[in-house]
Specification:
D-Maltodextrin-Binding Protein, domain 2; 326 residues; Arc Repressor Mutant, subunit A; 34% helix; alpha/beta; 14 strands; 3 domains; ten-stranded mixed β-sheet; rod-shaped
Length: 326
């Protein structure tokens, strides 16, 4: 069955006259008659009673008419969607965003998409890095922005570095360590710890504490950064989070040193999966954004040569000692 056969059938069903139907479809009557005949053969019976002055639908014709009408409508819709897709007139982009990335880092990208590609509707899917990793591979997301430690990567994914962000110790404003310019792991011995359950550094910080003989008791755990910050601000303990996430006025942030920790946040797509026009537009815009006042991640972006950066590096996923100067 071909779409022109459906159009011819519907024209005859409306006009109840083969000559007028052929004129309406801008086709010779023999061609229209032949197409209807082929359609009848495929359907297994006549669709019209052909009488000299009384052409009308058979029972089979009446039965299939609404379904063929739906098929034509859906075909027209599919063609329109394809045209809009090709020209970026109306596209849906499902962007996964790691829940620990502050909105301040992404509003510029979303704004650029809206300004230069108004036909793209961006849907943000907020989840942990590990959840985004799975959703992207399963095809539930078009693209994602996140960071994961070394041993949780998949070779199915392609990573484009966007920016580095320093990991900070977050303290109540009146805490005894708040007057210091930086915090060492050993300074935190015995301090109560407020744990971010979806932190992508899960398991890493504890290793540094154990290495230095430092003990901290977890007194509160939450998947929500606003709750973690509220508990810290109330004096319940200290936290560990990216610099741009600590937006509560009741806290102060101090860089962790010995070791100095950074995370590299990446734009992630599925390796070998063709980019839709919307994904291609996002990748292009992301490469032109000034992330935190810096161009998209390059050799001169922020960590010192002694810093530990967790994220996607040139040689694969691993925890690396960066050899990068400020």
């Amino acid at each position: 069955m071909e779409m022109h056969q459906i159009r011819y059938f519907l024209a005859v069903a409306e006009e109840l006259n083969f000559t007028r139907a052929a004129e309406k479809c801008h086709v010779a009557q023999p061609s229209l008659t032949r197409a209807i005949k082929l359609l009848e053969e495929e359907m297994g019976g006549p669709l019209f009673h052909r009488e000299r002055a009384n052409t009308h639908l058979t029972e089979l014709g009446r039965s299939v008419r609404p379904h063929l009408q739906d098929a034509l409508v859906q075909s027209d819709i599919a063609k329109r969607v394809a045209r809009e897709f090709k020209t970026l007139q109306k596209l849906h982009l499902k962007l996964g965003l790691m829940c620990t990335v502050a909105p301040t880092e992404l509003v510029g990208l979303v704004g650029a998409i809206r300004a230069r590609h108004p036909g793209i509707e961006v849907e943000l899917v907020d989840a942990s890095a590990r959840e985004l990793n799975e959703k992207l591979i399963e095809g539930e997301l078009d693209v994602a922005i996140y960071c994961l430690p070394n041993d949780e990567a998949s070779e199915k994914l392609l990573f484009r570095p966007l920016f580095c962000e320093r990991m900070m110790i977050v303290l109540p404003r009146e805490h005894k360590l708040a007057t210091r310019n930086a915090i060492r792991v050993v300074d935190l011995d015995g301090e109560p710890y407020i744990n971010r359950a979806k932190c992508e550094f899960r398991g890493y910080l504890g290793g540094f504490f154990v290495e230095r003989g430092v003990k901290c008791e977890v007194v509160f755990r939450s998947e929500r950064d606003d709750w973690v910050l509220a508990m810290i601000a109330s004096g319940q303990g200290f936290g560990f989070m990216p610099e741009n996430c600590a937006s509560n006025q009741g806290v102060v942030t101090r860089p962790l040193v010995d070791p100095e920790l950074w995370r590299e946040v990446n734009l992630v797509t599925v390796r070998g999966r063709p980019h839709s026009p919307a994904v291609a537009a996002l990748v292009k815009e992301a490469a032109q954004i000034n992330w935190g006042g810096n161009p998209t991640l390059a050799a001169a972006n922020a960590p010192t040569k002694s810093a530990i950066v967790i994220g996607r590096a040139a040689g694969g996923w691993r925890r690396i000692q960066t050899m990068v100067e400020r």
